[in-house]
């Protein structure tokens, strides 16, 4: 479990060696933190460490915390997309160097940590959808690119294009983009112009590779030729755009929108599987399912029978049917019951929702002091 050094407490056990910026081991795995060692790590510029997750091992849980490194990177990515959107809408250009820096940061963090993480940005307001969605799509696409074995140059092209894949939406009037009712044929025609416009914006930038620009142009094309703007099919669609098309739909389905509520991840996965071979390249759908955790280990979930539990294991071949340690209330705390459920075997049970708690309430629920 990764926590900010500011959240480290005496008695916590270090799960991985802590290194300095020049590669020296500052603290070995297995060490128990002391007040002096925490001060030392802070002085050395350490901002985050890995500690043992005591909740999953059945012991008293450590203080939960969102990953500070991801928080910083993802927050900057969202601000970057917002600023570029505003800049382009006002007739100014794209700040290429800023985009390159943030994409490189995301790539390096993913390569370093070798993680699969489904949704790095929670939507804070419906008005923020375009910006947060762009960041989610970028990260998910890069996870797939890493799994596919792309070089860093290829990941960079994929990251740039996926982060800017919806830039063409600046031509869509706000009253259409934010409309809660069904779009008219005329309004839908306007919406369908955004891939071509996004492509025209990106292709004008000499520092943006054509492969990145094609993501904006082709991410609404479909494997069977039913997409737009050109009705391309199969390998006529650039492979980057085929990847982005899948994660674009998945993230959109699992996010609240003005005109509909989000659906559960397992429902979105079922839709992707149903579209495999028709809307999407089946090989890339399989790649998505095997490398993007729908329910990450450590997620607290509710089952259709009302039980609460925490995800303890995930089968990559069937990510919507994880292993779950059941929890029960003891006063104001959630504690393990000792019973585990394997949804691969318990076919009548399924996850109805992920329990999202703010930091203060989560600490209270898990009984951490």
Automatic annotation (TrEMBL):
<dbReference type="InterPro" id="IPR037522">
    <property type="entry name" value="HD_GYP_dom"/>
</dbReference>
<dbReference type="Pfam" id="PF13487">
    <property type="entry name" value="HD_5"/>
</dbReference>
<keyword id="KW-0378">Hydrolase</keyword>
<dbReference type="GO" id="GO:0016787">
    <property type="term" value="F:hydrolase activity"/>
</dbReference>
<feature type="domain" description="HD-GYP">
    <location>
        <begin position="108"/>
        <end position="304"/>
    </location>
</feature>
<dbReference type="InterPro" id="IPR003607">
    <property type="entry name" value="HD/PDEase_dom"/>
</dbReference>
<protein>
    <submittedName>
        <fullName>Metal-dependent phosphohydrolase</fullName>
    </submittedName>
</protein>
